[in-house]
Design brief:
heterodimer, A: 209 residues, mainly alpha, globular, B: 79 residues, 5 helices, elongated
């Protein structure tokens, strides 16, 4: 894989810990325990990523396992120019997309230019009022977020997942998906607007009164 | 700057990827357009809610199968 520039946004401190370069170096030198520590650190995020892409638990589990095994196998190729996590995400995206394409070969093409013919101007313009994070129990909110993102077309879903959940840069997302930067930007805008529209059902102020 | 342009530049505005002139003209529009302000705010919240959401713990059986696969392939342990 080609080295990429670090993304503009830093990951939350809970994700990237200071000891990561040490663990990666140890794992590269063959320390399996160090690699297992990295797996424990990222397994939840990689599983969620794979689930959001594949929309299938069995495929997500397989994609996660294969991603970690592939990462260990190819650790020697990791240059350290990007974060380990970004590198891992790119492997996981490839694994998950392969599963998705296998299951739905005619439905998943990320590289076609999408013209949905839909007007971008938002409908249902209404303030959300108090923070949705305060209004819903965490598990309830989590269910809302999961079911809402699953309604997106895969080519929008995966771009939103990488940019706004995994916090890859636009360039990293483009490279991971084999898309142009303008294509990523266009899909991201549509994905954000569609999600906003769909979340409106739950979060708009009138829903709360 | 009109509402359509605001939507077109929405991502760039939220990602702080605009030059200062364009940014200023968007903010001027937002001062008097309540609908665009709501769209900007709720889209920003959409991104933040997803970004802040913590992934659920792995189901126990999934975690165990991952551990077994790693042991088998990395350590050559029969599981």
């Amino acid at each position: 894989m080609n080295p990429v520039e670090p993304p503009a946004h830093a990951l939350p401190s809970t994700v990237v810990k200071d000891d990561e370069p040490v663990l990666v170096a140890a794992a590269k030198a063959g320390d399996i325990s160090a690699f297992e520590t990295l797996v424990g650190r990222y397994e939840r995020k990689i599983f969620r990523l794979a689930q959001n892409i594949t929309q299938n638990r069995e495929d997500a589990e397989d994609a996660m396992q294969e991603s970690f095994l592939k990462a260990f196998e190819h650790l020697g190729e990791f240059q350290g120019n990007s974060r380990f996590y970004t590198w891992l995400v790119r492997i996981a995206v490839n694994q998950a997309l392969m599963k998705l394409r296998k299951r739905r070969p005619n439905q998943v093409s990320l590289d076609d230019e999408i013209d949905t013919g839909e007007e971008l101007i938002p409908r249902d313009v209404e303030d959300w009022g108090p923070s949705p994070e305060d209004r819903y129990e965490q598990s309830e909110l989590s269910n809302i977020l999961t079911s809402t993102i699953s309604e997106l077309d895969p080519s929008f879903r995966v771009v939103f997942q990488l940019r706004d959940i995994e916090e890859l840069s636009t360039e990293e997302t483009a490279e991971a998906l084999g898309l142009s930067v303008p294509a990523v930007k266009s899909r991201l805008l549509r994905a954000r607007l569609k999600l906003r529209q769909k979340l409106n059902r739950y979060f708009k102020r009138s829903e709360n009164s | 700057m009109n509402c359509r342009n605001i939507v077109r530049e929405l991502s760039n505005y939220l990602d702080e990827a605009l030059d200062s002139t364009l940014k200023a003209s968007i903010e001027k529009h937002l001062e008097h357009c309540e609908d665009c302000k709501v769209v900007v705010d709720t889209t920003k919240q959409t991104i933040q809610i997803y970004c802040n959401s913590e992934p659920a713990p792995l189901p126990e059986d999934t975690r165990q199968r991952l551990r077994d696969a790693l042991k088998k392939r990395l350590r050559g342990v029969r599981v």
